[in-house]
Design goal:
Layout: E1 2-7, E2 12-15, H1 17-20, E3 22-25, E4 28-37, E5 55-61, E6 69-71, H2 85-89, E7 101-106, E8 113-119, E9 127-133, E10 140-141, E11 146-148, E12 154-161, E13 167-175, E14 183-188, E15 195-204, E16 208-217, E17 220-228, E18 236-245, E19 252-255, E20 261-267, E21 273-279, E22 290-293, E23 302-308, E24 314-320, E25 329-335
Antiparallel strand pairs: 1-25, 2-4, 3-4, 4-5, 5-6, 7-8, 8-9, 10-12, 11-12, 12-13, 13-14, 15-16, 16-17, 17-18, 19-20, 20-21, 21-22, 23-24, 24-25
Length: 337
């Protein structure tokens, strides 16, 4: 295994790649994350100064994840929608262009909607934000989990608040016109007394999906999977990947070139670090944990995103804490499955 540092800056907290997306085109890879002012405010909280603005950054690698260049997209710093939904429908965006990408953000101005951005040049430039209305008053917390298909079809997997105003519940959206318009498709899983959030999804054949989600209930945390056999219209529980005390981290699930599934996640109990599991039977069973890192200095780490690079290795990106009194970094591990 190889470990590489993507972002490390004095006085800054780099965090949460799972919230901001990872895209790949061969050995060209882009990951989004946030840079916050570092401030220790208690062992049970993120070490950030919440009174200070956060900066959205990207890092780009052209060699499969070994070297990185930092970027600060101007458009992604702005949360003011530039168009109505009617104007969004007029945007010329083709998901089948070679380096197309979409990203979503929460909309702090209007509950029930989210902000959408498009790129056609491998995230070098973005168009947006465009406001997308989904619910009436229900807070939407999108992370970056979607599947591009042919003829403008996109299926996106997002999180919204529950009926009682607390987080959260996973749902499915569909666009048939490259993201110009969207329709609600389904809820994924039953509503929990705790939360079920932050999906990561792969295709299962022509009409199926497998969706992994992060959950919390009654003091326990874990990762569950749900399966759809009718193109996302209905879902059933499909099994558990992780169920433990003190572990709260979203999954990143990908399909490997050999057909296996791979899931990575942060491990927030001692020894703190990053772990992975593999499945050879479409998620019915999973291997024992593979430890990618066990040298973390605090629970405040993880939020992985992974991709398989052309030589067959897996690149897993995450935020990391070597010492709880020090700044958080964005790091990557390259490993062979």
């Amino acid at each position: 295994m190889e470990h590489h540092t993507i972002f490390e800056e004095s006085g800054r907290f780099g965090g949460w790649p799972a919230n901001h997306g990872l895209w790949s085109w061969g050995n060209e890879i882009v990951v989004g994350f946030q840079s916050c002012v570092f401030k220790i405010i208690g062992d049970s909280n993120h070490a950030i100064d919440k009174t200070q603005p956060r900066v959205h950054l990207q890092a780009r690698s052209l060699d499969g994840g070994r070297n990185w260049i930092l970027e600060k997209p101007t458009v992604l710093q702005d949360f003011t929608p530039i168009s109505t939904s009617t104007e969004l429908q007029a945007v010329q965006f083709d998901i089948n262009t070679p380096k197309a990408a979409i990203t979503f953000k929460s909309n702090p101005q209007t509950h029930g909607s989210m902000l959408q951005f498009f790129s056609t040049d491998a995230c070098r430039s973005w168009k947006g934000p465009f406001e997308v209305s989904i619910f009436s008053g229900r807070v939407v917390e999108p992370r970056i989990d979607y599947i591009f298909e042919v003829s403008g079809k996109i299926t996106a997997f997002l999180t919204a608040f529950k009926d009682n105003g607390e987080e959260g519940r996973v749902f499915c959206l569909r666009s048939m016109d490259s993201g110009a318009t969207w329709r609600f498709l389904s809820w994924i899983g039953e509503e929990r007394t705790g939360f079920n959030i932050m999906p990561s999804t792969v295709r299962l054949g022509a009409n199926g999906f497998l969706c992994a989600t992060r959950w919390q209930e009654n003091g326990r945390w874990g990762i569950d999977t749900f399966i759809s056999r009718d193109d996302g219209l209905t879902w059933k529980p499909h099994g558990n990947i992780l169920d433990a005390d003190g572990l709260s981290n979203p999954p990143s699930m990908i399909r490997l070139a050999d057909g296996r599934l791979c899931v990575t996640y942060g491990y927030r109990a001692k020894p703190y670090g990053i772990r992975a599991k593999l499945s050879s039977d479409e998620g019915l069973s999973w291997t024992d944990e593979r430890v990618l890192r066990d040298d973390g200095g605090h629970w405040d780490l993880g939020y992985t995103r992974s991709v398989q690079v052309p030589d067959g290795d897996i690149l897993t990106v995450y935020y990391f804490c070597r010492d709880k009194s020090r700044e958080r970094t964005i790091e990557a591990t390259i490993w062979r499955p």
